[in-house]
Design goal:
With 267 residues, this protein is α/β, with parallel strands linked by helices. The chain has 2 domains: 108 residues, no CATH class; 140 residues, no CATH class. It has 10 helices and 7 strands. Helix 3 packs antiparallel against helix 4. The structure holds iron/sulfur cluster (2 copies).
């Protein structure tokens, strides 16, 4: 099932057969009391989450960091969305289209994150969820970057070099790898590069990403894997994922070994 989100205000759809998902426990109970599920559409009330204005928060360093609690709220809210989608999939001809009722003036990519979470849960096979989460996190960082114009290239010059008047057309990439020859977008979908912000962006512009604040990564990666995502700069997506799988394999092996040792002592 392909999930997509449409803005209810801009949508041409005039039917009124919507079920509104709100951020409260009663919401799912309300859904169960309905009698007709055919052609029922999902409308998400992001405003009930009150996330819109608070996507970034000031830290002591006056740096804007995606707030960790937003990730927690979003994951909690997502549980209600997932339950609703599962229910409607069983009961009706739900087509994956979700409408948002986003009255907040500040644009953000919470809807993209929600789509990512739904896609990984419903469309990606068990064994590939790590890869799916990686892909969606890359898309999220790209969208955040272009929305907030963080590390962004014009005439081959990146934000920092433009602002500082430095005539360098490759950004800071050559200090990490040799792939980018001009300011053209890098062809590698590399999560650590997308998370990376130079000192100028952090301390002078106030942008900072961490993998711990991205819901799809928090759901499908362990803290160790997320920390690794932060550290393996300039690898290709394939190499990064291979490394992450290697670490996951080692973790599973370690856990099995620990359980075996505990059992040996207990028996
Ligand atoms: S992160 Fe690198 S490419 Fe982006 S603005 Fe900073 S120096 Fe330029
Ligand atoms: S892989 Fe990363 S460091 Fe290398 S060119 Fe691409 S964005 Fe720059």
């Amino acid at each position: 099932m392909e999930f997509c989100i449409e803005d209810l205000i801009e949508s041409q759809d005039n039917s009124e057969n919507y079920f509104e998902i709100e951020n409260n426990k009663e919401c799912f109970k309300k859904l169960k009391t309905l009698s007709n599920f055919e052609n029922l559409k999902i409308k998400i009330n992001f405003n009930s989450l009150n996330l819109g204005e608070k996507l970034y928060g000031n830290t002591k360093k006056e740096t804007l960091v995606i707030q960790k609690k937003n990730c927690k709220y979003l994951l909690k809210f997502y549980k209600i969305v997932k339950k609703t989608v599962k229910f409607l999939k069983k009961k009706s001809n739900f087509d994956g289209k979700i409408y948002i009722n986003n009255l907040s003036e500040k644009k953000n990519n919470n809807d993209l994150m929600l789509i990512g979470l739904l896609d990984v849960d419903f469309n990606v096979k068990m064994f590939y969820k790590l890869n799916g989460a990686y892909e969606h996190a890359c898309d999220f960082f790209d969208a955040e970057n272009s929305l907030n114009k963080m590390c962004d290239f014009h005439d081959n010059h990146c934000t920092k070099h433009r602002d500082k008047g430095i005539d360098k057309t490759t950004g800071c990439c050559p200090s990490f790898c040799k792939v980018r020859v001009t300011g053209e977008p890098c062809k590698h979908k590399n999560l650590s590069c997308k998370i990376f912000m130079c000192d100028y962006l952090i301390y002078e512009k106030g942008f900072y990403f961490t993998p711990n604040t991205v819901a799809v990564l928090c759901k499908h990666m362990t803290p160790l894997e997320r920390a690794i995502c932060f550290g393996i700069l300039c690898r290709t997506q394939r190499k990064s994922l291979k490394f992450l799988w290697f670490v996951r394999g080692l973790t599973v092996l370690y856990l099995i070994l620990m359980v075996a040792i505990i059992l040996m002592f207990c028996l």
